[in-house]
Amino acid sequence: DSGVTQTPKHLITATGQRVTLRCSPRSGDLSVYWYQQSLDQGLQFLIQYYNGEERAKGNILERFSAQQFPDLHSELNLSSLELGDSALYFCASSGLGQPAFFGQGTRLTVV
Amino acid sequence: AQRVTQPEKLLSVFKGAPVELKCNYSYSGSPELFWYVQYSRQRLQLLLRHISRESIKGFTADLNKGETSFHLKKPFAQEEDSAMYYCALSVTGNTPLVFGKGTRLSVIA
């Protein structure tokens, strides 16, 4: 157990819908990262938050957004979902000078 | 921009044979390098971090700055080593990891 918790584990939704993925980082970790893993694209970095502020942005679509709350948990919002958004979405957290630890992921299926 | 290259998509070896998973990176500074392992689309688990220079599950990796490589090695492969292995780079602490495409290791009994 890495200490990073993601909910839900599985999500099936229809095209055009909006979903929210949740991540609770390890205790004390201020950084939260979101990654998308698909079969053809591998692991793509989406966005990073550090202590509530956006720190870095990767290949995140405009239809996607994220935030980190005062208790340091983070949410990734995916809207106007398309079939191609089906993927595993991982959250990771890290502390100062520490490597990133990953959650078990949310498997999103868009039908 | 930083880039991590894992040239092999799939590597098949027999049980007991040596394993080497290749990783090359491009970055002009001094990055931090990692190996992560993923079993059956589960969570990514940290396997090795170059600054710790320790051996985990019999795996070792040495950072070669001249060749910009961080190859993962194990002298005797076990069936339970079958998994997806990702090499990753971080520019500084608390910055996003840049991952290679991964190598699927299959250990054949």
Topology of helices and strands:
The complex is a heterodimer of chains A (111) and B (109).
Chain A: E1 5-7, E2 10-13, E3 19-24, E4 31-38, E5 42-50, E6 53-57, E7 64-68, E8 74-78, E9 87-94, E10 101-102, E11 106-110
Parallel strand pairs in A: 2-11
Antiparallel strand pairs in A: 1-3, 3-8, 4-5, 4-9, 5-6, 7-8, 9-10, 9-11
Chain B: E1 3-5, E2 10-14, E3 19-21, E4 24-26, E5 32-38, E6 44-49, E7 60-61, E8 72-74, E9 83-90, E10 98-99, E11 103-108
Parallel strand pairs in B: 2-11
Antiparallel strand pairs in B: 1-4, 3-8, 5-6, 5-9, 7-8, 9-10, 9-11
Task: Report on the architecture of this protein.
The complex is a heterodimer of chains A (111) and B (109). Chain A contains no helices and eleven strands. By secondary structure, chain A is mainly β. In chain A, a hairpin with a 2-residue loop joins strand 5 and strand 6 (53-57). The radius of gyration of chain A is 13 Å and the shape is globular. The relative contact order of chain A is 0.34. With 109 residues, chain B is mainly beta. Chain B contains no helices and eleven strands. Chain B starts with a strand and ends with a strand. The A-B interface holds A 2, 4, 30-31, 33, 42-43, 45, 48, 50, 55-56, 58, 88, 90, 92, 94, 96-105 and B 34, 36, 41-46, 49, 86, 90, 93-102.
